[in-house]
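Response to reviewer comment R2.3. The reviewers asked that we include at least one raw input/output pair. We reproduce the pair for Phosphate ABC transporter substrate-binding protein here without editing.
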Amino acid sequence: MFFKVKYFFFFFICFFFFNCKKSDDAKVNSETIIKGTTTIFVDETITPIVEDEIMVFESKYDAKINLISKSESEVLNSLFDKKVGIAVLSRNLTKKELNIFEQRKVFPKITKFATDAIAFVSNRNSKDTIIALKDVISFMKGNRDSSIKGLVFDNPNSSTVNYMNNLAGISKLPEKDIFSFNTNNEVVKFVSENDGMIGVVGVNWLSQPNPSMNEIIKNTNVLNVKGIDGKGFYAPSQNNLAEGTYPMARDLFIINCQGYSGLGMGFASFVAGDIGQRIVLKSGLLPVKVPTRKLNIIRGQTNEGKK
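Raw output as returned:
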């Protein structure tokens, strides 16, 4: 009886392993770099540019990409927990994070494709159109000597919060005069209705707003920012990002942990290629490679001397 149970258990394990392996192989074989279906998690602060890239990619290839927007922390946790194999982040992986993958014998393919920025927005009725980064950091540390009444963030776990916390040298946001919502749209709406509040959002949401947000954005100002050691105030424009004068720029990356030649590799190549970089340029962000322009010179013929 013992041997029958042992034999049955062994058979069950082999059957389960074989079917799982078969399922994995079927998924890999049905997906190529330009064909198949996959899911990508994206930092919600840069969703608009990724939506644009996916729309054009799908129009050119027999591919379907399901895009899921999450906070930066949720995206990273999903990568670590193997819930997703492809992610788009507003920063590169840290050495500690890379070590986690390497211990699992997973070696992410990382593609930098654009430069975004974090912007400060205020109510349009506000007289101030400039802000010093050191004043914002001082406010986050508890000082209340500036004209700032409150800072408004999208999500406690977002990339903008992590970025600002790192700048301020704090581990978490203070509770006093700090507000957080769920989305960038909610931040902009709150700022448009409340004087003295400063919203902290990704530039991508301002350069490519949802049509329903156009009127709300008209009631806000995007502030020019002076860096901690800077002398001038600069807007988060494409030109200032290119010249490196805007103090709160950040690079965007595609993190591919699929481990095979699937849509992760194809999508990353597309976004880093000529068409993908033109989409970035048109969005108002800064592409890694500025697409070349071809000029066709047509020599005209004159009718001088003819009657």
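Residues 1-27 have pLDDT under 50 and may be disordered. The CA atoms of residues 3 and 205 lie 65 Å apart. Further pairs are available on request from the corresponding author.
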